[in-house]
Amino acid sequence: MHWTYRLTIPTAFANFTVRACLQHWLIPKRIQGQLRQGRRLWVNKVPASVATIVHPADQLTLDFIPSDFRTPISSYQPDSAATVQLLYQDSELLVVNKPAGVKSHPNQPGEVGSILNHLAAYLAPTGQAPYMVHRLDQMTSGAMLVALNPVVVPILDRLISDKQIHRTYYAWVRGHFEQAQGSFSEPIGRHPTDKRKRWIDVPEAQPALTDYRVIQTTQQQSLVELTLQTGRTHQLRVHLAANGHPIIGDPLYDPQAGKAPRLLLHAIRLHIQRPFSTASIDVEAPLPAIFKATDQIDQF
């Protein structure tokens, strides 16, 4: 098994070395070294080194093998593909619309029922398989990014950490805000007494930043747009709850959660910088009907 990439050198890479191309494309140094040591680099079908100079329209070929990756094989047990709703797919990645109540990934070997199990079944006829890039909490719905080979997994991870992939959410929360937009910047760490939870300003808390914008209000509640600038566990849920606006239906942080049919948090939009490309894409997940039922929101 191997994954071969044939990449046309763009004008912006004129007189780059092969090493500079690999760095620009965010290929981890460890994998760069393995490509070099394994002599799996070619320019215009001629064996190349990382010091080889490339020119616009040259073809750089990279041949990746399983030992290059920490998780080379996707081993999710295929489950029913009936619930899969794709929002976008190309040869390297896809975005799926995850329903609320479905896990992003299995927690135990052989476990089924998660989105990645469903995608394993959906992709099986094509010979492809899903690789996890980021996860949504079980009760969160919306756009979830999945890789289709191990080559792009570390690249997408880096694009997320470098904020070249942006994740935007909608949430119905309790109460009204004094300002129509702003940010929450309290550091987040493990809750001191409940290991299921996270909280702000606790020992060993890590920096966290969430931007918010009020979209709509009812008599008692607010619909807000949320943008993650960092990726801490439960970040949106904790930042909102700690600032007096728990997400409606949150079983951990909303004291009145039992009134709502679900956690009212939806990953509405992904802005994705595509690997090995200057192109980006924007993918939007349709807003669930319950988010539009403003006549019912105050009852939750």
Automatic annotation (TrEMBL):
<dbReference type="InterPro" id="IPR006225">
    <property type="entry name" value="PsdUridine_synth_RluC/D"/>
</dbReference>
<dbReference type="GO" id="GO:0016853">
    <property type="term" value="F:isomerase activity"/>
</dbReference>
<dbReference type="InterPro" id="IPR006145">
    <property type="entry name" value="PsdUridine_synth_RsuA/RluA"/>
</dbReference>
<dbReference type="InterPro" id="IPR006224">
    <property type="entry name" value="PsdUridine_synth_RluA-like_CS"/>
</dbReference>
<dbReference type="InterPro" id="IPR050188">
    <property type="entry name" value="RluA_PseudoU_synthase"/>
</dbReference>
<comment type="function">
    <text>Responsible for synthesis of pseudouridine from uracil.</text>
</comment>
<comment type="similarity">
    <text>Belongs to the pseudouridine synthase RluA family.</text>
</comment>
<protein>
    <recommendedName>
        <fullName>Pseudouridine synthase</fullName>
        <ecNumber>5.4.99.-</ecNumber>
    </recommendedName>
</protein>
<dbReference type="Pfam" id="PF00849">
    <property type="entry name" value="PseudoU_synth_2"/>
</dbReference>
<feature type="domain" description="Pseudouridine synthase RsuA/RluA-like">
    <location>
        <begin position="93"/>
        <end position="242"/>
    </location>
</feature>
<dbReference type="InterPro" id="IPR020103">
    <property type="entry name" value="PsdUridine_synth_cat_dom_sf"/>
</dbReference>
<keyword id="KW-0413">Isomerase</keyword>
